[in-house]
Each structure stands twice: as C-alpha cells, then as structure tokens.
Design goal:
Oligomer: single chain
Structural class: mainly alpha
Radius of gyration: 18 Å
Number of domains: 2
Order of helices and strands: HHHHHH
Helix content: 40-55%
Distance between the termini: 20 Å
Largest sheet: none
Amino acid sequence: MVPLTDQVGEALLEYLRHGRPDAPYQEVFLTAHAPVRPMKSPAAMSLLVGHHMVQVGVSCPKKGSHAFRHGFATRMLQRGQSLKTIADLLGHRNINTTFMYTKVDLPTLQQLPLDWPEEVS
C-alpha cells in the first residue's frame, strides 16, 4: 500500500461521490458512456490516459498510464529510495525489471559501484 497525497485523495473522493456512474460493480473506474461497465483491460485505461495527455498537451516519449509509473519510480529513485523498495511498490517480481528506471538518473548512476546487486528473491 502506498499513501495518496491529499490532492489525489480529494480528487478520488470527488470522483466517487459525484463523478462515478451509478453501477453495480466493485471496480472504481468505469466507462463514462453507456453501457457503463468496468474497463475491459489495463490497456484500455492506458489508451484513455494517453488520449487525455495528448488533449492537454503533455509532451513525453510514451503516452499512457505507464508514464505515471515511470514518473513515480524516477522520483523515488531521485529521492534516494532503493531499487528494492521501488521494485516492491511497483510489484516487480524481479529487481532487474526495475533497473530500467536507473537510466534516467545519471548523477546517481555515476556514484554507484560497478557491481550490480544479485537478484533478490
């Protein structure tokens, strides 16, 4: 579990109270137009996020919900969190998957020893 910022928590509450369609589903996010139902897949949510990023003029290499995961991991790395912690929060089973986030933090990379840690089970 990761705590939400106050701003994100308030936005989520606002959506649940006033924006979420009334429907008999446990999923939080539903389609906005009839027939109201849960999103079909994570890819559908990512496409929707990407569409809105383009609409508001967000410029980044990859548009979609993955941009939020990448931004979250990059900020944690820049604030000194270990790759193991980041891997756990992102749900990575293999820490090597998390290494892709190190490529954006060159100053920190230059301070690291040459040997990478072994895989943690």
